[in-house]
Amino acid sequence: xxxxxxxxxxxxxxxxxxxxxxxxxxxxxxxxxxxxxxxxxxxxxxxxxxxxxxxxxxxxxxxxxxxxxxxxxxxxxxxxxxxxxxxxxxxxxxxxxxxxxxxxxxxxxxxxxxxxxxxxxxxxxxxxxxxxxxxxxxxxxxxxxxxxxxxxxxxxxxxxxxxxxxxxxxxxxxxxxxxxxxxxxxxxxxxxxxxxxxxxxxxxxxxxxxxxxxxxxxxxxxxxxxxxxxxxxxxxxxxxxxxxxxxxxxxxxxxxxxxxxxxxxxxxxxxxxxxxxxxxxxxxxxxxxxxxxxxxxxxxxxxxxxxxxxxxxxxxxxxxxxxxxxxxxxxxxxxxxxxxxxxxxxxxxx
Length: 350
Prior knowledge:
This protein is mainly β. It folds into two domains: 11-191, Sulfite Oxidase, Chain A, domain 2; 198-316, Sandwich (Immunoglobulin-like). It has four helices and 20 strands. Strands 13, 14, 15, 16, 17, 18, 19 and 20 form an eight-stranded mixed beta sheet that branches. A five-stranded mixed beta sheet has the order 2-1-10-5-6. Strand 11 and strand 12 form a beta hairpin.
């Protein structure tokens, strides 16, 4: 994590532009700002759940969060430099420099965006998160924020932007952060970008025992650049599905809460699955696509529960109670050490 002095920091815009420019913090802050609410997830989130171990940090389910991001639309910054007509991508470089086990030479963190995504009004060089100036760990003083895309695209400690006229093939989108796709030509390599539809069950948790009568399931679902339009719950391992109730706003980029109320009539074992459908009709899969390797892990994970032969009162609650439970769950997790913090120093890579 670089220690940056704001007085000496500047953002360089160069490459296929007619006007190379070095922006100071004060100059950027004079431009109109935009705020975006978005969920962002690590592309390898959930890697530890895969049946076959994949290289990289063995994340659990927690490498995801939701926040309010504020910054200057990247489009405004690029327009001030007047891009050349042959521009095809925009490259972003962070001030962090490091090595990987298969790349011992020091290198900066670099990623690119296609021109259409770079010029989208919601793509921001962000200076604030939840209304506060970024902490150093979040990319102070400026980070790129690409809503709807996996977190790797949102380059931290941003110091240089280069407009290029051919696709960029740097380490973090050639050696790392790529998946395979079956095409008519064979298997092609694709760069990890937009987030996939995904759901998590917050309550109940693995090993919980339910009772006869009313039981409540709830969690969160998100769908990258889309909003979530539907969430379904299966209690029989995917043989049949029932609609959950969406709670709160359904907006592009943002996760939404869901709730499923169920009357248990007899004791027995349950295998619970949840799947989300996006506003464009993308459906969360039941199984992990092997061509994704250790990325895009968004399949429905089974939750095994048991209904005991005991009666209980209904566990139905309003949205305020669900939010209370969700915040309590998050605070409980915050007290724990990162599930992967030791692996960063062990050469695991990202």
